[in-house]
């Protein structure tokens, strides 16, 4: 299986390295010093689940070097999705499958608009990983999960083959019959987690230990949950409580990836997280004061330096 990783940072670099180390034909799209390091020194993963080293990496900044892919993993930041959809066209053939492992809920829709819904399957990733230095992906903690699935819940050969490849690579992967629910379940948590850690410039521990901030965090979860329900997404009735329990179980010092971008004065995914919740709220007549407060607090930082 030829797998192209478009976006070789924390998510794409980690899972792409695992697949490459297991023998899959993986092509990494990267740029700058990270690309140079992969070409010259291979790709390294440091992880409590076991380190990995891919000595010979097929890495390029030109999609045309890769030929037609069987599967394209899209793992760029949400604000780069439109550009990514255009850039990957040379790698997309009649039997190519595309899957977004991005944050938010818009990635798959953008890919579907560009290539047709029938070419796209649903995907979700849960991992704390980053480029520690060029050529090195640092995985924090032990959570490294993927979920994939067809939109209608059926198991097709393409999803089964990708699932089998991930299992062979030692990846904790789920073949879901309700992938839309998986994506939205993550979105309910992530939009609140990213928004509140950035708005208060704090890790999750101190936020949850403060009664007012804890209440705001729960309200943010409830707002996105309500929107998902009105949009027809089937989610467990107790999802908000489960997400609160999950947050309570996180390391006290954990931040969102958007917080790291904020500290580095990089562009933020805020419009595709809290901004999208607020937009949906206006469209559906659902009040979203918690997420709107995050949008307002961070508005001047969205574009970075």
Secondary structure blueprint with pairings:
Layout: E1 2-6, H1 10-21, E2 25-29, H2 32-41, E3 43-46, E4 52-54, E5 58-60, E6 71-74, H3 81-87, E7 97-100, H4 107-115, E8 120-133, E9 136-149, H5 157-168, E10 172-175, H6 179-200, H7 204-209, H8 211-230, H9 239-248, H10 257-263, H11 274-284, H12 289-298
Helix pairs in contact: 3-4, 6-8, 6-10, 6-12, 8-9, 8-11, 11-12
Give an overview of the whole structure.
The chain has helices spanning 10-21, 32-41, 81-87, 107-115, 157-168, 179-200, 204-209, 211-230, 239-248, 257-263, 274-284, 289-298, and strands at residues 2-6, 25-29, 43-46, 52-54, 58-60, 71-74, 97-100, 120-133, 136-149, 172-175. The protein is of the alpha/beta class. It has 2 domains: 2-177, NAD(P)-binding Rossmann-like Domain (Rossmann fold), CATH 3.40.50.720; 181-301, N-(1-d-carboxylethyl)-l-norvaline Dehydrogenase, domain 2 (Orthogonal Bundle), CATH 1.10.1040. Strands 1, 2, 3, 4, 5, 6, 7, 8, 9 and 10 form a 10-stranded mixed sheet that branches. The longest helix is centred in the middle third of the chain and has 22 residues, at 179-200. The chain starts with a strand and ends in a 7-residue tail after the last helix. The model has no long low-confidence stretch (mean pLDDT 96).
């Amino acid at each position: 299986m030829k797998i192209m990783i478009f976006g070789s940072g924390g998510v794409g670099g980690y899972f792409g390295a695992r697949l490459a180390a297991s023998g899959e034909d993986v092509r990494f799209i990267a740029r700058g010093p990270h690309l140079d390091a992969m070409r010259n020194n291979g790709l390294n993963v440091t992880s409590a689940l076991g380190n990995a080293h891919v000595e010979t990496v097929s890495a390029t900044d030109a999609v045309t070097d890769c030929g037609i892919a069987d599967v394209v993993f899209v793992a760029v930041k949400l604000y780069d999705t439109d550009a990514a959809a255009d850039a990957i066209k040379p790698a997309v053939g009649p039997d190519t499958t595309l899957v977004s492992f991005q944050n938010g809920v818009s990635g798959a829709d953008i890919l579907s608009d560009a290539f047709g819904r029938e070419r796209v399957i649903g995907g979700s990733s849960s991992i704390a990983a980053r480029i520690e230095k060029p050529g090195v992906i640092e995985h924090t903690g032990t959570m490294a999960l993927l979920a994939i699935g067809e939109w209608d819940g059926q198991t097709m050969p393409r999803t089964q083959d990708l699932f089998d490849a991930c299992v062979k690579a030692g990846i904790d992967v789920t073949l879901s019959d309700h992938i839309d629910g998986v994506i939205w379940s993550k979105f309910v948590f992530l939009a609140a987690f990213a928004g509140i850690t950035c708005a208060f410039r704090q890790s999750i521990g101190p936020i949850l230990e403060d009664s007012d901030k804890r209440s705001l965090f729960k309200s943010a979860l409830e707002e996105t949950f309500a929107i998902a329900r009105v949009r027809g997404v089937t989610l467990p009735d107790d999802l908000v409580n489960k997400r609160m329990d999950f947050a309570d179980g996180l390391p006290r010092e954990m931040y969102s990836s958007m917080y790291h971008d904020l500290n580095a004065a990089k562009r933020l995914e805020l419009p595709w997280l809290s901004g999208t919740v607020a937009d949906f709220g206006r469209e559906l007549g659902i009040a979203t004061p918690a997420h709107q407060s995050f949008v307002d607090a961070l508005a001047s930082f969205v574009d970075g330096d």
